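Researcher: Let's try something more involved. This one mixes different molecule types, so please make sure each is placed in the same coordinate frame as the others.
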Amino acid sequence: MSLTRTTCPYCGVGCGVLAGADGTIKGDPEHPSNFGRLCSKGAALGETIDLKGRLLAPQIRGRTATWDDSLDLMAKKFSAAIRDHGPDSVAFYVSGQLLTEDYYVANKLMKGFIGSANIDTNSRLCMASSVAGHKRAFGSDTVPGTYADLEEADLIVLVGSNLAWCHPVLHQRIAAAKAARPEVKVVNIDPRKTATSDLADLHLRIAPDGDTALFNGLLAHLADTDQLDDEYLKANVTGRRPAITQARFGDPLKSGLSEAELALFYQHWAGTEKVVTVYSQGVNQSKGGTDKVNAILNCHLATGRIGKPGSGPFSVTGQPNAMGGREVGGLANMLANHLDIENPDHRASVQTFWQSPTICTKPGLKAVDLFQACANGKIKALWVISTNPAVSLPDADGVAAAIDNVPFVVVSDIMAHTDTGDLADVLLPATGWGEKDGTVTNSERRISRQRAFLPAPGAARPDWKILCDLAARMGWGAAFDYTSPAEIFAEYVALSAATAGFGRDLDLNIFADMDYATLLPTQWPRNDQRFFADGAFYHPEGKARMLPVSAPDLGERKGFTLNTGRNRDQWHTMTRTGKAPRLGAHLAEPYVEIHPKDATDLTLTTGDLVRLSNGYGQTVLRALITERAEPGQLFAPMHWTRQQSSSGCINTLVAPVVDPVSGQPASKLTTVEATRFDAGWYGFAVSRDPIDVTEAYSAVARSLTGWQGEFAGVDTPDNWQDMAQELLGLSDCDVTEMTDPNQRQTRLAFYEGETLVGLFFAGPDPVSLARAFAVSLIGTTTPPLRALAGRSGADQPDPGTTICACLNVGINTLRAAITAGASTVEALGEVTCAGTNCGSCKPELSTLLDATRIPMAAE
Ligand SMILES: Nc1nc2c(c(=O)[nH]1)N[C@H]1C(S)=C(S)[C@@H](COP(=O)(O)OP(=O)(O)OC[C@H]3O[C@@H](n4cnc5c(=O)[nH]c(N)nc54)[C@H](O)[C@@H]3O)O[C@H]1N2
Ligand SMILES: Nc1nc2c(c(=O)[nH]1)N[C@H]1C(S)=C(S)[C@@H](COP(=O)(O)OP(=O)(O)OC[C@H]3O[C@@H](n4cnc5c(=O)[nH]c(N)nc54)[C@H](O)[C@@H]3O)O[C@H]1N2
Ligand code: SF4
Ligand SMILES: [Mo]
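Model: All components are placed in one shared frame. Result:
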């Protein structure tokens, strides 16, 4: 099987992948991001490229349509809206998962031809505060860090970042560096304990949004103890005095940390020359996110710890092409190629280069405002490309209603059903990873190729092509007559040359002579060039700026603080990772982490359900009772949608509060009420066929043998068999039922001939049984009595909840190995194979060894 060299479509680490049409996936040993490593999501890519659930033809209002009819209708609607209501009455909402070429074309069409800047992207929810912070400090959105810096640093500070789960290969690189040089220190700053804290020498459980207080405290300490780099400051930085004065005003105890913890952190930071501060969504997704970014940058600038090997701030990007999107100007407040909308010379230069009829003159609507404009009728035509805002934006129900309110909505996706796609007038099939060609830029500014190794399925087209097809129908064919992504990339590189006179950081000259087909992963401006090494920054005076920032007043909060984020094995709204059985097995239902004390107060015990609510909406989630959460603080993952769960979409609760500078939503901090969900019954099912989402509480996931589902309801059904049959979609089966009328417990087994195709368990209490064992029975000829026992016999041990997704090793197998004497992660690997493929589960293995296992809600 010949393998194609391509790049992983998930996180911003940007790992190189060798992929084959038969589903073979290997880490690319020659790619400088991962040197052959992959995480569990990357390693499972082969399980997500089948055509199940794919959108294979355009649809107009639910009916299959031709490309011509769909594009004609779009051109008519968009042109009419522009004619009748002006260019700002239309909008594109795009994605950091588009390839650079798609993004470049979308931006060119909106800003240069339609003449509006109403193109925003899910990067607004992700990187906007970092972009704004970089621009305030450096005069440009420059990420100076490289991955090698992480290996050279003596102190790595991870702020608001669960690197072990969200950038696993970087986490592994840090773990390897630490193993090679045990003196390397890792500090993790996060209100909750995560798999990342497990690697850290010091975990600082900061108060939510306490980061600015902490870094202001550090700056004041550095100034007060004479540990600033005066020479560097004089030569390269302005704003020192006001920033330090402001920092001294603040109270570092507002960070929620003790004097002793603060002193220890200051000591580590002040005493180490090579410090890298990695930060992510715990910093960006805050109503004071941009100030948090500048509080961090201030400390690096004040000590000259920037632009040097092993030293500097490092905002790691989330999506595979978050960086590329910023480069081509995908945000509503940017032009193309790191140029500024507000600058008339920049605008004129881009317009001349594009030979476009117009150019936007002011920033467009940022994501939250954009959907507000949809709600209040200002947007007449909307195109959503490669993102799922009805799930991922705050106030998700409000956003769904807003999309529904737009007279004409187009959604381009690879899947036939998503919460957003279900609201579309026109649904367009895009080619997905493995089928399309282009480039992505990772967190360290490295541009890599994604290459196709599969044919385009059905009528699917690449996103750039669909955009060009619409542009042509709107009368701009000549400017969008590209025949390949290579041509678009060449134009993007040429724009960089044409605007080089402005002296911006984005310089793509190195790519001008490279062959697109064989392009090797390459950093801009050059592989060996370090930004800011010479102390030159991009403000007009050539210096960096320290900014006075102050910690937000958090006030008194009533109720619980809800924090949200990610799981190890799922990607966002699960449209792709949700297809992979072995990824579904890690954490199979929507849950909320809650401290034992709070659980007691709410009379919750393991397996119970909890209802969270506020003025925006409500969710029902499984209570995961754990000291990883702080009292009063809850954490829930963002992944569940209305497709897999009845009430697990967490953004229905998240308030649309944004950072005033960046417009980025504060997705990490919402106030909610929590109450016990008093279920009349609980159920669990496994099935060969897809399971329906219907009950008051239901959550379905792929399993290794088909599907599994968790259920609960208020009123106990009259007929279990009818209900189970409907949920499992199993008719014409032989059914065996075991019912205990007194306790209202029921167990049902569904057979086709001798083959077990479904099992359903229900009762008045949370169903306690060996789920992995039940899953393993589907498709076998296990007889009813044995199947309904719900527990494995001694001859067939129950592996328990999956910990190692690659090699399918369950928690019980691991516990047994530990009991038998395995005392290190390596020993567990030798005995059970766990952690020996991608290694993403190693943090959990070590936690298990420490006897604080990851508690699954209902094992
Ligand atoms: N497995 C997986 N990996 C992914 C993704 C995925 O969906 N799944 N998505 C990718 C994307 S797009 C992104 S943006 C990245 C995100 O990567 P991360 O930012 O690492 O992930 P999150 O889980 O969103 O949030 C990180 C941490 O911020 C903490 N936090 C919350 N509030 C605060 C606070 O006030 N201060 C501090 N210091 N910390 C706080 C949370 O407790 C959480 O542990 O992950 C990327 N990688
Ligand atoms: N509460 C809360 N909310 C959050 C966050 C959080 O931490 N907490 N994090 C935020 C962040 S950082 C991010 S990045 C967003 C992510 O949120 P989204 O971008 O909404 O989530 P995805 O599931 O990645 O959506 C991508 C969509 O594009 C489709 N797709 C995949 N490949 C292609 C392709 O090649 N072409 C096209 N046209 N479509 C394709 C997928 O099927 C999917 O429907 O969520 C944000 N929302
Ligand atoms: S760390 Fe994992 S998800 Fe991120 S690029 Fe690498 S393989 Fe893909
Ligand atoms: Mo993101």
